[in-house]
UniProtKB/TrEMBL annotation, chain B:
Keywords: ATP-binding, Nucleotide-binding, Sulfate transport, Translocase, Transport. The keyword Disulfide bond does not apply. One of its GO terms (cellular component) is ATP-binding cassette (ABC) transporter complex. SUPFAM superfamilies: MOP-like, P-loop containing nucleoside triphosphate hydrolases. This is ABC-type quaternary amine transporter. It holds the Pfam family ABC_tran. It is a peripheral membrane protein. Its main location: membrane. It comes from Myxacorys almedinensis A. One of its GO terms (molecular function) is ABC-type quaternary ammonium compound transporting activity. It is found in: Cell inner membrane.
Length: 308, 338
């Protein structure tokens, strides 16, 4: 019954609205008031910006710039020499291989997890959601130790592995596992919100038009999450290449054999080969710079999409 | 028979969305599923589409049992409330989607898309992206996309719900016209009774997971089967049966409440036969109609609608004494509140 009356009363509304707009033109603009306020307290932002710059300088900018300074202190010659050492080249190769295995596997896993968590309601969903963050919460050293306790000589699977002559700890497979563990959450974490925001509507629409699951994924789901996915990929790759703690526990740190780039930096530094350490560090830092630039581009693209 | 639903039930957790619903929809007709939110109308539409599976019961499409067919194999067109256009594809690509999935030749796709763009009056906008279109245009693209694959049935879920009033009115008329051209069996969901009555050949009024009544708009308006239908379709006064206004005029009922439409209240300025006395407490001008709120001596308030001509003739003013009687009133065994 109320519906009918409500509809009739709606017709009165334009009158009321008209009054409101008139009122607002007479009242002083709130923006003007605010600007006067800001003038009076203008030292606050200056102070805050100052503190931020000093803080970031000490913690971030100066150390980062120092890496480049130290590496090129004696000119480009020694720098190149350092980068052509066999142990260094082997470390780079290992790091690239670790990323080449961990990134695709974590991408596939991350996509499946993100889809299941964003599209399906099931028991233990929120538990699984927090479980994905486990690698963020656990110290990488502990993560490495967990692998040693499982696959090491004294570990649960130790006997089985040894009798079959399979080495995981202090070998490449262990490093892969450690890298996968620490870089696991990024893709899922980036893709879940994008999937949730996109909703299931477009996927359902594709199905009503005859698309099967595979076609729906390639033609509709993937294009709508592409920026989130790419961002997740970049972060996964950065973590996979930069990881120190977990990899260092499981690798045994054998130079020229199981030494990834971050491990090489540490060893070189300890051996008083400061220049070699800084040269390798420059390479890792460049990776970070490239990552940040890509991330910035991604974010800008996403923002443009959102505005549209 | 276009669509046949037999004893279909569907539960979400502890919520009974549909309870033993049966329904036949003639092929080529335009039917509205009408009901308040939570009445199960959208669920029923999604079950027909195959986007949900029923817990029990059967769904037949064009004479074939489609209960266990996937949504892809039902050959339906579905239009979503929020359009669900593919944001990363142009209008042309959106419309062509179903045809490309079916591996139609490029030439066929092009002619068909051109045809549909013309049908939905969007010729020239084919290269735009959904974000560059207005709400009404997006909904027309969604319709063209659904029609591209020549579906056996077209299903629309609150198709005009997200649009503003003016565009909604235009699109309604346009949908009716489109259906008269294309003749595909069409079912659309709405909670707006005016929209349902304006567009459809037949109404299915739903409440709490059940079908309350099926019939033509005129039939349902004139002969509502239940209290719910009477109060959902158009405004109504609900008054105790014991009120003098009914007792004096031979509207007797075993049920405690009587339903009286505002336009069925006859107003006069002098006593006339069995009229009862009332006081005009408020007058609201609605343009083509005047709504009068009338207080009876027993404290009941009756709302009446009278035409502008009749109003001018009576020259009603607030606080005036008037004499009223019901032209028609109904009562029902059970009263549902909405």
């Amino acid at each position: 019954m109320k519906r009918g009356w409500a509809k009739c009363l709606d017709i009165e509304q334009p009158l009321i609205l008209g009054e409101q707009t008139e009122m607002s033109t007479i009242a002083p603009s709130p923006r003007l008031v605010k600007r006067a306020d800001a003038k009076r307290k203008s030292w606050v932002p200056t102070l805050l910006i100052g503190i931020t710059i000093v803080y970031l300088g000490l913690v971030l900018y100066i150390p980062a710039a120092n890496v480049f300074y130290q590496a090129f202190k004696n000119g480009i010659g020694p720098f190149i020499e350092n980068l052509t050492q066999p142990n260094f080249i082997q470390a780079v190769r290992l790091t690239v291989m670790l990323a080449a295995i961990a990134v695709p596997l974590n991408t596939i896993f991350g996509l499946c997890t993100a889809w299941a968590l964003a599209r399906r309601q099931f028991r233990g969903r929120s538990f699984m959601l927090s479980l994905i963050d486990l690698p963020f919460a656990i110290s990488p050293v502990v993560a490495g130790l967990m692998l040693v306790l499982l696959y090491g000589r004294q570990g649960w699977f130790g006997d089985v592995l040894q009798s079959n002559n399979i080495r995981i700890i202090f070998a490449f497979p262990g490093m892969v596992l450690a890298t996968m563990f620490v870089s696991m959450p990024f893709v899922a974490r980036e893709v879940i919100p994008v999937l949730e925001e996109a909703g299931a509507d477009q996927e359902e629409a594709a199905q009503t038009l005859g698309a099967n699951g595979w076609q729906t994924f390639w033609r509709v789901t993937l294009p709508s999450i592409r920026w989130g996915l790419l961002y997740g990929l970049i972060l996964t790759n950065a973590r996979a290449m930069g990881e120190f703690g977990a990899v260092s526990v499981v690798s045994g740190n054998l130079s020229g054999k199981t030494q990834s780039l971050p491990l090489y930096v540490e060893e070189a530094y300890k051996q008083y080969e400061t220049e070699a350490a800084y040269s390798a560090a420059v390479l890792l830092a460049l990776l970070a710079v490239v990552t940040l630039v890509l991330k910035e581009i991604m974010e800008r693209k996403t923002r443009i999409k959102e505005v549209e | 028979m276009g669509i046949s639903v037999q004893d279909v039930s569907k539960q979400f957790g502890s919520f009974q969305a549909l309870d033993q619903v049966s329904l036949d929809i003639k092929s080529g007709s335009l039917v509205a599923l009408l009901g308040p939110s939570g009445s199960g109308k959208s669920t029923l539409l999604r079950l027909i589409a195959g986007l949900e599976m029923p817990d029990s019961g059967k769904i037949w499409l064009t004479g074939e049992d489609a209960t266990h067919r996937g949504v892809q194999e039902r050959n339906i067109g579905f239009v979503f409330q929020h359009y669900a256009l593919f944001k990363h594809l142009s209008v042309r690509k959106n419309i062509a989607f179903g045809l490309e999935i079916r591996k139609a030749s490029a030439r066929h796709v092009k002619t068909r898309v051109d045809e549909l763009l013309e049908l939905v009056q969007l010729t020239g906008l084919g290269d735009r992206y959904p974000s560059q279109l207005s709400g009404g245009q997006r909904q027309r693209v969604a319709l063209a996309r659904a029609l591209a694959v020549e579906p056996q049935v077209l299903l629309l879920d609150e198709p005009f719900g997200a649009l503003d009033a003016k565009v909604r009115k235009d699109l309604r008329a346009w949908l009716r016209q489109l259906h008269d051209e294309v003749h595909v069996t069409t079912v659309f969901v709405t909670h707006d009774q005016e929209e349902a009555m304006e567009v459809s050949d037949e109404l299915v009024v739903m409440n709490k997971g059940k079908v309350e009544q099926i019939g033509t708009p005129a039939n349902i308006y004139d002969h509502p089967a239940t209290a719910f239908v009477m109060s959902f379709i158009g405004p109504v006064n609900v008054l105790p049966s014991s009120s003098n206004i009914f007792q004096n005029n031979g509207f007797d009922s075993a049920h405690p409440e009587m339903f009286l439409r505002p336009q069925d209240v006859v107003i006069d300025t002098s006593p006339n036969g069995n009229t009862v006395e009332a006081r005009v407490s408020r007058l609201i001008h609605l343009g083509w109609e005047v709504q009068a709120e009338l207080s009876l001596d027993d404290g009941q308030v009756v709302t009446a609608h009278l035409t502008r001509d009749r109003f001018d003739e009576l020259r009603l003013v607030p606080e005036q004494r008037v004499y009223i009687k019901p032209k028609d009133a109904k009562s029902f065994p059970l009263y549902y509140s909405i």
